[in-house]
Write a structure and sequence with these properties.
By secondary structure, the protein is an alpha/beta fold. The chain has 25 helices and 29 strands. Helix content is 37%, strand content 21%.
Length: 679
């Protein structure tokens, strides 16, 4: 309760200067004086808005439950020590610039005393339900919970929420997360009655798995979460030995975490607030099929394109529905979807609501988007205000009755109708782009459910203390999980080849077993028809690459195979991650991948495969036979279990996994120890 509804607050560093942090914090604290005791501390004895200050915490009549610290960095540890000695157990650290070592020592003392701190280097906290306002800026009360690592970005979110009319229920800037983490503050929103939707901005996810569990708990509590983060880590990708490490970016892993948590990842603060508006105002989307009603053919067509780009479907209406729509419109109007009003709205404003009623009742769509002039009639022609507002009432009632979203793109930004639409639970936006980037993610979020991240059972194969260096060892580890490899034998000289070849089926491949990326240095020779050719190829490799373990392997020459990459690695924040994508030597060129937190089931792995742009190749492109999708999915699930069950492994990879109509064969593999120095 110290950070949401303390019984008493002391602002240390309160100021009478409106340009200083201390003034904003003191003024905000005093706004809650009807609910709690508020004390202001200033060494100079300043008077803030008519309220006297005390020179120190020791001079207060009681020990405050929460101390807000807005003092110079060089004096902050001293103030904290004084507060701990007095018995303060809650700290809100606004001060920045303390330095890592001094901050760590200070937080250690706070924790040792059984106290907690939000921050330091934070912008503050706000709670609409408890009149707690300890932050820079002004907040509009509402239903959006905001937890942000960046104070300024959090303040931008709060401002956008106010402009959108949805307001803020609770705001927390976590700053450096030196003690209290964002995950803890987000968890506190599960029982916060005023909060209906949450936006979380983070740059460092710390214990990502715990955060995923927390976001899933919020979703189960009926509070959807929208996540914002920043970019990818080029340095992290360059440090990876495998293609898997090079292909997976920070953003893709966060997206996978959001899917596992039942949350959604937004691209910008504006999009996050637009999505939140739709989630707060409209019935939850139940499907992706959307009917588009436009005042002109151009607006309807553009709306259909925009919605499609955001994962929604604009399906053609059936014959019966087209007939009902046609009866409401002039001859020649477009009725299949998108629907062109062709001037019907101007002749009779009730056409809008009658069309929406037909469409929502058709059973062929899951929502309706109106795009164009509606919302502008009353603004441009005052005599139409009453009629337009009546239609607004009808649209809101239809959305509620059918429990489907009706979303409006209006050419008016600030008319009475636009405000009324939002009040009636009809989200209204100034551009069709906003409609697309709101309705698409909101629909995805509504249809998405949290995925339990269970740990894998103990796996057979190499024990954790055995180093799986080289291709043959990696084969053994991965094959133990049921992933099929071609027959192979270890060879070191040409004299070893005849005996090895006798137990294998030609054609053969010879490869340098110790190289991670064999093809890049010419470490693989394929298409060897007999033992003599294989021996000659081995001599050539030894001459170029030197002595070492080489592998003579059966070549997979099945027709109509598709090459995939299947990899796993350990993300610093979110732990084990599995990837599948277009494989072979061009995997990084195509970057056609699917990423999930590991482990995944074979069913989840199959969904990953179906999400690839190249999936038609697996499914029988242009008359080719369908490949064994079940075998490919089993390999993905096996690699995901390996990386999840073996914390001693940093990366593992099969590339390529050759998938044909009669199964999947792994023809190269790599396993990297977690302690191994990466080049």
């Amino acid at each position: 309760m110290s950070f949401s509804d303390p019984s008493s607050v002391a602002v240390v560093g309160a100021s009478a200067n409106p340009a200083k942090w201390g003034y904003w914090l003191a003024r905000g604290a005093l706004r809650g004086a009807h609910r709690r005791k508020v004390y202001l501390v200033n060494r100079s004895g300043a008077v803030v808005d008519g309220v006297a200050t005390s020179p120190s915490l020791r001079d207060l009549p009681e020990v405050p439950e929460l101390a807000v610290l807005c003092v110079p960095a060089e004096t902050l540890p001293e103030v904290v020590d004084e507060a701990l000695e007095l018995g303060v157990r809650g700290f809100l650290g606004i001060t920045a610039g303390l330095g890592v070592e001094r901050e760590s020592r200070m937080v250690d003392r706070i924790r040792a005393a059984g106290a907690r701190m939000v921050g330091p280097n934070c912008l503050g906290v706000y709670d609409a339900a408890t009149a707690l306002e300890l932050a820079w800026g002004n907040f509009t009360p509402g239903a959006l919970g905001i937890v942000s690592q960046s104070g300024q970005l959090g303040l931008e979110l709060a401002g956008l929420a106010g402009e959108a009319g949805i307001g803020v229920s609770r705001f927390v800037s976590v700053g450096n997360q030196a003690d209290v983490t964002a995950a803890e503050m987000v968890a506190g929103l599960a029982g916060h009655d005023r909060t209906a939707v949450v936006v979380l901005y983070l740059e460092s996810f710390m214990d990502g798995r715990r955060l995923v569990e927390t976001l899933a708990e919020l979703r189960s509590a009926g509070k959807p979460v929208i996540v914002l983060t920043v970019g990818t880590s080029q340095a992290g990708r360059e440090a990876a030995l495998s293609h898997t490490g090079a292909l997976t970016s920070g953003t893709e892993v966060v997206e996978a975490a959001c899917r596992a948590a039942g949350a959604i990842l937004a691209q910008t603060p504006a999009q996050a607030v637009d999505v939140a508006q739709l989630l707060l105002d409209a019935p939850a989307p139940v499907g992706r099929r959307i009917a588009v009603v436009g005042d002109g053919g151009g607006q309807g067509a553009i709306a259909a394109d925009v919605l499609s780009r955001h994962g929604l479907i604009v399906p053609p209406l059936g014959t019966a529905s087209c007939a009902e729509v046609s009866a409401l419109l002039p001859s020649g109007a477009g009725v299949r979807n998108p629907i062109d009003l062709a001037g019907a709205g101007e002749r009779d404003l009730s056409t809008y609501s009658r069309l929406v009623e037909v469409l929502l009742g058709s059973g062929e769509v899951d929502g309706v988007v109106l795009t164009g002039y509606f919302g502008s009639y009353g603004a441009d022609a005052p005599s139409l205000v009453e009629a337009e507002l009546k239609v607004v009432d009808e649209l809101g009632a239809l959305a509620r009755r059918h429990a489907m979203p009706v979303v409006v793109h209006s050419m008016s930004r600030d008319s009475a109708a636009v405000h009324a639409l939002r009040e009636h639970g009809v989200p209204t936006y100034a551009t069709i782009d906003q409609v697309g980037w709101s309705l698409g993610p909101a629909t995805e979020l509504s249809l998405r459910t949290p995925r339990p991240l269970t740990t894998a059972p103990g796996l057979p194969g190499a024990p954790a203390d055995e180093s799986p260096d080289g291709y043959l060892a990696a084969r053994a580890v991965i094959a133990a999980l049921g992933v099929a490899f071609p027959g192979a034998a270890r060879v070191r000289t040409a004299g070893d080849v005849p005996l090895a070849a006798a137990g294998l089926r030609p054609p053969y491949v010879v490869k340098a077993a110790w190289l991670a990326h064999k093809t890049e240095v010419g470490g693989v020779v394929v298409g060897l028809r007999n033992a003599e050719e294989a021996a000659s190829a081995l001599d050539g490799l030894r001459a170029r690459l030197g002595e070492g373990d080489y592998v003579l392997e059966e070549m997979d020459d099945r027709p109509h195979t598709v090459e995939l990459i299947v990899g796993g690695r350990r993300d610093p924040a979110f732990g084990p991650v599995v990837l599948v994508g277009v494989g072979g030597t061009v995997s990084e060129l195509h970057r056609d991948i699917a990423v999930e937190l590991a482990p995944v089931t074979e069913q989840e792995a199959a969904r990953m495969l179906r999400g690839l742009k190249a999936f038609p190749l697996l499914d029988g492109w242009r008359g080719a036979p369908r490949t064994d999708l079940a075998a490919a999915a089993a390999a993905v699930a096996a690699v995901s279990r390996l990386v999840a069950d073996r914390p001693d492994l940093a990366e593992c990879e099969v590339n390529p996994l050759r998938v044909g109509q009669d199964g999947a064969l792994a023809v190269d593999a790599l396993v990297v120890q977690a302690t191994e120095e990466k080049a």
